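Table S7 (text form). Paired inputs.
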Amino acid sequence: MSQSLNTKKRHTKLFKIPSALLLSGRNLPRASWASITIVTVVYVLTNIAYFTTVSPAEMLASSAVAVTFAERLYGVMWWIMPVFVALSTFGGVNGILFTTA
């Protein structure tokens, strides 16, 4: 029951967001479609890059495919991939804070 109440509270706050936007009837759908398209394209291109760089056997043997990909592609700069993954989690945290604050 507590979880459903929490979801209802987030849902209510989500509908308050468009009132803060200028021309929300036009800009919110554009932003939604643009973000969905960008995320889909980046996801597909990332998977294509993984499959062209790392063999399927290496993918199965790897505990982190992105790190194996970075080791092969960036050499000594392989450590940058986990840093970028850690930094990207702030976007998720920002979204959660935005809808729950």
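Next pair, protein 2 of 2.
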Amino acid sequence: MFNSSPSASTLFFSADRDHDVAGGSSRPFRGGGVGGVGDGSNGSCAERPLEFAPAEKVAVGLALAAVTAVTVIGNALVVVAVCVVKKLRQPSNYLLVSLAAADLSVALGVMPFAIATDLTGGKWLFGEAFCNVFIGMDVMCCTASIMTLCVISVDSTLPVSEDRLIC
């Protein structure tokens, strides 16, 4: 009738536990609980931010900056190519330009601030007002990119479906 084993909340979320014992081995507890309950978080996120050594910060910063730069350059080239080359100005390529523009907005409006936040151990340095703007931009730009991918997949599927209906 009563379960004598400890509940999941006492096993993983106990404030006085430093280690989680699983399978007979002891490993450091890395969160996974509710924010602010014994996991050292600030109450808004269950994950602990990564702490980097100075040399690691430089390496991670350079790698993330390179990814951002490649994203900006690649998507800008797509937009410019479709705008400049007359043979590329076709309705199906307009969807690719829309996707490139959405990804460009992520690369310019979201990625730099996310990188800075990651490198400072999860500390937001840009003020509370811009934090709300950033969250809005993040959601809006990523959703635009995802929805454009959905439209591209429907656009490429419709001609195949129409051919099957005719046969």
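The chain has two domains: 1-48, 54-156.
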